[in-house]
Amino acid sequence: MEHTEHLSVEKSIATLQDKLSYNKTYAEKATKAGKYDSIQEGQHPDVTIVSCSDSRVLERSLDDEIGKVFSIKNIGNRVEPNLGSIEYGVGHLHTPILMILGHTGCGAVHASTKDMSGEHYRIIRSLEFIKPTVGEVQKLLIRKGGIASYMAEHPPTVKPISEEAYFETLVTEANVDRQIETALGDDKIRELVFSGKLMIVGAIYDFKDIYSTERGAVFVININGETDVAKLKALKALGGDGRVILNQIKRLLVY
Ligand SMILES: [Zn+2]
Prior knowledge:
Elements (H helix, E strand, L loop, with lengths): L1 H31 L14 E6 L16 E6 L8 H10 L4 E7 L3 H6 L8 H7 L3 H13 L3 H7 L9 H22 L2 H8 L4 E8 L10 E7 L5 H6 L8 H5 L8
Bound molecules: zinc ion (ZN).
C-alpha cells in the first residue's frame, strides 16, 4: 500500500513538473508575441461555449486567439449547473453566440445509457439529467419502427457504425437540444434571443468519423431551439454567403 502511494506521488510530481515546464515555454512565447498586450485590461470574447470536459473536445478548434472564447466545461455539457457562468458570458461580456457543444464518443452519454448504480453519487447526480433523454430517444425510435429501420432511413454519412454508437449519437444530439431548451427557459437568456442580441447554437464536435472524416469538425444541429435541418438551412440569418454554415449543418436525429 505504502509503495503504491509513493509511486502515485512520484507520478503526480512528474506530471506537475511536465506541465509547469510546458507552461514556462508557453508564457515566454505568449509574452514575446504580445498575446496579452491588447487584452490585459479586459476580455472581449465573441462566443460563450458550454462544452463537455472530455479532453478531446477543444474550444480552440473554433478560435485559438486568446480572449475570444468564454469557455464553460462540465461532463455532458450541461446548462443548468452553470447558468451563472453562462449569464456572465452572454449578459456581461455580450457574446452574440452561446454555443452548446456536445461531442461524439461522449462518456457521459454512454454512461447514461447504462446502469449507473455503481458510480459515485455525485457522478450519478450530474448525469441523471441525461437519463430521461435516453428514454425519450428510445420512445421516438419505437414510434419510428425501431433503430434498425431508423438507421436505414437516416444512414450514417461516412461509414457504417454500430447500433450502439448510432443510438448514443442520437442521445448526444437530443441532449444538446434539451440543454438549449433549458437555456431558453431562463428569462434573461430568452430575452436576449428574443431581441436578436443572442443566438443559441447547438453543435456536435466529431472525432469519430460519424458526421465527416474531418476529426475535430463542428456541426450545427440546432439554432435557437430549431432542429429542422431544412428550416435551419433556410434561416434568413444564414443568407448571403452562408455556404460555410450551410455545409456544417447536419444532424441524425429527426423528431
Ligand atoms: Zn463528453
